[in-house]
Amino acid sequence: MPLSPQHAMIHLMVVAASSDNRISPDEIERIDALIGQWPVFDGFDRDDLPKVANECVDRINGGEDIETVLDNAVKAIPPRLHDTAYALAVEVAAVDLTLEQEELRLLEMIRDRLELDRLVTAAIEAAARARYRRA
Fold first, then answer.
1. Higher pLDDT, 20 or 36
2. Which of 21-25, 36-40, 124-128 has the highest mean pLDDT?
3. How many CB atoms lie within 10 A of CB 134?
4. 35-39 CB contacts, 8 Å cutoff, 24+ apart
5. Any residues with CB less than 8 A from the CB of 44 and at least 6 apart, and which?
6. Distance between CA atoms of 2 and 24, rounded to whole angstroms?
7. Distances in Å between the alpha carbon of 50 and those of 5, 10, 45, 84, 98?
8. CA-CA distance, 72 to 76, in Å (whole number)?
9. Does 99 have pLDDT greater than 70?
10. What gap in Å lies between CA 99 and CA 1, rounded to an integer?
């Protein structure tokens, strides 16, 4: 069954969170907060978040490779929301204030599939770094 755009964006956030082989409590909290705050999730029932997130994890654990999961998610997101989807993935990846090589590679894979301009993605990444920087 095809994903809805909202479910697809949640899948991208879950994949971004799990790129270092674990999803931290901070990442889960951030995904929930983003769903509650960003207008793109208006109408989404936040009680469905565990189910949607588990569907993504089940696909990966069930043998679907990460590229297929990404392709299915990107296919469900309209082009006008591609930059939003990338920004959500970056927000989740940046939560722990360090981006490991796996996370950077995954963001690159998402960026390439969304066919976003490199200047746009650099701006999104710089904005996330600024938001999470501590004094």
1. 36
2. 36-40
3. 4
4. 35/10, 38/84, 38/88
5. 6, 35
6. 28
7. 17, 10, 11, 21, 25
8. 7
9. no
10. 33
Contact status, residue 21 vs residue 106, Cβ threshold 8 Å: no
Percent of the chain with pLDDT over 70: 96
pTM of the predicted protein model:
0.93
Nearest-10 Cα torsion for 44, 25, 57, 60: 130
Q: Is residue 73 within 8 Å of 3, Cβ to Cβ?
A: yes
In the chain, the amino acid numbered 3 is L
For each of the domains in the chain, give its residue range(s) and CATH number, in order of start.
Answer: 5-132 (1.10.3680)
Q: Which tokens go with 45? A: 């029932």
Contact status, residue 3 vs residue 59, Cβ threshold 8 Å: no
C-alpha gyration radius of the chain:
14
Per-residue DSSP letters for 36-57? HH-GGGTT--GGGHHHHHHHHH
